[in-house]
Every structure is written in structure tokens, then in C-alpha cells.
Amino acid sequence: MNNFEFKNPTKILFGKGQIENLSKEIPKNAKVLMLFGGGSIKKNGIYEQVSAALSNFEVIEFGGIPANPEYEVLMEALDIINAENITFLLAVGGGSVIDGTKFLSSAALYKGDNPWDILTKNEPTLKGMPFGTVLTLPATGSEMNSGAVITRRETKEKRIMGGPGLFPVFSVLDPEVIASIPQHQIANGLADAFTHVLEQYMTYSVDAKLQDRFAESILQTLIEVAPVILKNTSDYKAASNFMWSCTMALNGLIQKGVPSDWAIHMMGHELTALFGIDHARTLAIIAGSHYTYNLATKKEKLAQYAERVWNITEGTIEEKAKAGIEKTTEFFQSLGIKTTLSEYTEDYKGTAQLISKRFEERGWKGLGEHGKVTPSDVEKIVEMSY
Ligand code: NZQ
Ligand code: ZN
Predict the structure, then answer these.
(1) DSSP conformation class of 335
(2) How far apart are CA 56 and CA 51, in angstroms?
């Protein structure tokens, strides 16, 4: 096992009725900016519950943060934070609203001239404005981690940011919010969380037995609850297991002491930036090709995954590894997710070259757990995903 440090300061309030308890977690004299997305919370009762919980606070609202949160929109919210002397942010939404709030938390205290630099200069945020979240869509794990992904529409860029100053102070996880989520977003959440685990597991063994088994148990739980929650979003037992699995998939725990990959995400972000494809679906497009292309360096872990998660006991390491990749693709397809780029756009030719060129321009020499997936490898992997 590798050396590691682990600190996750986010307080979790999990379960039915927990939204009303958020008032106890916000400083009494706080001036709150409540941030939300395109309006789903006004149709499913979450807005009323949060408003009631905030009744003793001075609150300003900012709605309209779009999926794949946009820098331009967030800059409007930043103006309000500054003009109104806001002291606490409350994100009510999925990964997009929470990520947008993390950007604002960082930007509110940022000393530089241009907040876009937060996304391009790769400097971790050590201190941000305090914020809490009410999660409405299990998927990203953003509610218990310190990372964010922000989009700039004018340049079709999607960039990552983060740092120890960007953990939420608290997050409310009430599985009842899942009842109103459309099926395709549930499928996205399952696929995103599943891939988060894979990115931190499908590397090479460092004999971290507990981390491996944590990861495998999250994958198995997602596989088990997927058909149940897709069939009935009001199934509270399935909803709670789905929600907690998504959080545990990316709150740092399973990543400690082990190598991680994240190349699927880096390629996937480009597909969202270029074509607007949902985040989780971009991962389903890239994953199979990435694992097939890198079979030589990942086959032991792929075979372990095939055996322990999919019960594939026959065959050589290589055969099991390939069967594991096959099972992964079938799992995404069982969620109703298409797994090739050409099923999403007719305009796919040249995408591989374009993404590879972008990575070269950014000076990204090598991705993956060995830092050896070069822009030229990226070109081949994306091409295999057409
Ligand atoms: O905007 P509203 O009207 O609220 O509707 C949203 C949105 O259209 C809707 N929704 C959310 N909760 C709902 C609901 N509809 C009905 N009932 C509810 N309870 O769902 C739609 C998608 O929401 P969004 O927040 O965009 O989805 P998700 O949580 O999948 O977040 C995706 C974003 O997170 C980033 C992605 O890149 C993408 O920008 N990620 C963030 C990560 C992180 N911070 O750690 C890691 C991930 O890998 C990912 O990159
Ligand atoms: Zn993801």
C-alpha cells in the first residue's frame, strides 16, 4: 500500500427528513446565497423544504445554473456575492450546482484579477467561502469531495479545479429526493459513480486489500440496485443504497494508498465540451476502448474485477480481463446508455485528432496511473470509441 494522508471534513446528514436540520449547520448570523439549477427543485417540493429550513436566515436566491455549470452564469452569481456581502453559500442540486458553488466559494476569496485563472493555473484552493449542499441527484460525489468541473461555452472548454478549501461544510443526503429524477439521469448517476470506482481501481495492484474490496463492494451494490431504482425511483431502500454508493465512490476513501487513473474522465470531459453529451455517457463511450487499449498494463486488475464483481472464473488472466471489459459495456447498455460516439453525433470524424491536439497544447504529456497515456495514445483510444 502507498503512503497517504486522509482528511475529509464534510459532515453528512443522511436520511428522510434531514433537510429541515440544515439550519443547525449554518452560522446564525450568516447571509446566505442559495444556488440552484433550472427549476427541478420548484416542482418536486425540495425548494419548499429548503426555504422552510432557512426561514430564520437572511437569504438571497440565485437559480438557473445549467448542467455542466457555465462560467458566464457563475460570474453573475459572483457579482451578487460581492454586492450583497454574502457569507455562506448553499447549493441545492446535483453535481452541476454543487460544482458551480465550489467555483464561487473559491472565486469569492480569490486574490487574482481573473477568476478563470482558477481553472487554468492549476493552483489548489486552500480557503474558500464556506458552503453546504442539499444533494438532489446522486452521481458525482461532489457533495463530499473538494473537486469541481466548470465549462466555458464560448471556447468549448471544460476544466477542473479543487483543493482542500473546497469541501462542503455539510451535505444533506435525503434519498427521497430521488423519486422525481428522470430515468436517464438515474442511469447517468449509476454510470458516473460506477466509473468513479473504476478510475480508482482499474490500475495495478499495490496489495491494498481493503481499498480493493471497498471498491468492489461499491460496484456490486450499484449493479444490484440499478434495475430496482430504474424501475421504481420511489423505492426508498434502493434509493438510499444508490445515494450512499455514489457518495462513497468519490469522497476520497477508496483512492487512499492506491494509484488512480482518471484518463477516461479527462477524455470524456472533451466530449461534453465539444458535443454537449452528458458527463456519464461520455465515460461509457470511452471506458471500453481505454481498457482494451491499455490491456497490457491493466489486465491483472481487470481479471480480478471480472472474477470478484462479475463471477467470471474460467479462462486465462487475459480472457478474464477481456470478459470484464465486455461486462462493463453490457452494464452501461443495461442502463439504456449508448457506448459509441457515433450513436450520439454524426459529426464525430476528426474528434480523436482534435482532443489529442488540445491535450498537447495544454502540455499534458501523459495521463493515467503510469503517466504514460500520451496525446497520441489518446487519439487512438478516442478513435476506437467511434
Ligand atoms: O437544473 P435542474 O432543473 O435542477 O435539473 C437537473 C439537471 O437538468 C436535474 N435534476 C437534479 N436533481 C433532480 C433533477 N431532476 C428531477 N429531480 C431531481 N431531484 O438533473 C439534471 C442534471 O443535473 P446535473 O447536476 O448536471 O447532474 P450531475 O449530478 O450528473 O452533475 C454533472 C456535472 O458534475 C461534473 C460533471 O462534469 C458535470 O459537469 N462532475 C463533478 C465531479 C466532482 N465535482 O467531483 C466529478 C464527476 O466526475 C463529474 O465530472
Ligand atoms: Zn464522473
Answers:
(1) T
(2) 10
- Write the pLDDT tens digit of every residue in 310-357: 999 999 999 999 999 999 999 999 999 999 999 999 999 999 999 999
pTM: 0.98
pLDDT tens, position by position, 158-176? 999 999 999 999 999 999 9
Number of structural domains the chain divides into: 2
In ligand 1, the atom with minimum distance to the C-alpha of 94 is 25
Does one domain contain both 153 and 244?
Answer: no
Residues, CB within 5 angstroms of ligand 2 (ion): 192
Residue 231 lies in a domain: yes
Mutate to test the pocket of ligand 1, among 34, 144, 167, 185 (most ligand atoms within 8 A of CB): 185
341 and 199 assigned to the same domain: yes
Is there a contact between 260 and 279 (Cβ–Cβ < 8 Å)? no
42 lies in the same domain as 151: yes
156 in any annotated domain = yes
CA R_g for the chain = 20
Does 268 contact ligand 1 (Cβ within 6 A)?
no
Residue 77 to residue 159: CA distance in whole angstroms:
19
Strand partners, 93: 135
CATH classification of the domain holding 114: 3.40.50.1970
Closest atom of ligand 1 relative to the 99 alpha carbon: 44
* Ligand 1 lined by 99 (C-beta under 6 Å): yes
User: What range defines the domain where residue 195 resides?
Assistant: 183-384
Cα of 29 vs centre of ligand 1, distance in Å, is 30
Per DSSP, helices labelled H in the chain are: 40-43, 46-53, 71-83, 95-108, 117-120, 183-201, 209-231, 236-249, 263-275, 279-293, 295-310, 317-334, 351-361, 375-384
Q: What are 226-251's pLDDT values in tens digits?
A: 999 999 999 999 999 999 999 999 99
Ligand 1 pocket mutation, candidates 135, 142, 177, criterion most atoms within 8 A of CB? 142
Query: In this structure, are strands 31-36 and 58-62 parallel, antiparallel, or unpaired?
Result: parallel
Half-sphere exposure of 95 (CA within 13 A, CB side): 28
* φ/ψ bin of 363: left (φ > 0), alpha (ψ from -120 to 50), beta (otherwise): left
Determine the Cα–Cα distance for residues 96 and 93; give it in Å rounded to an integer: 7
Q: CATH number, domain at 281?
A: 1.20.1090.10
